[in-house]
């Protein structure tokens, strides 16, 4: 199984200026860099520090990740 950042969060980074600005301040990166990270679906956006940021901004654990692939037994 692979845990990808949810399309809901990626779309919000790309479309919500205030959210992407707050995330860029949190990451200590330029806003255009954060937008590029979202377009590339970068692993940087899935680190524990960022997960806490999403939770602080109202996202539940289930909303943060899209799970791809099936668990094989």
Automatic annotation (TrEMBL):
<protein>
    <submittedName>
        <fullName>Uncharacterized protein</fullName>
    </submittedName>
</protein>
């Amino acid at each position: 199984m692979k845990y990808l950042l949810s399309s809901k969060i990626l779309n919000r980074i790309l479309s919500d200026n205030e959210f992407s600005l707050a995330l860029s301040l949190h990451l200590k990166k330029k806003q255009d860099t954060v937008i590029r990270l979202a377009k590339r679906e970068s692993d940087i956006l899935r680190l524990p520090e960022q997960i806490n940021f999403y939770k602080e901004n109202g996202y539940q654990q289930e909303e943060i990740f899209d799970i791809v692939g099936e668990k094989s037994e």
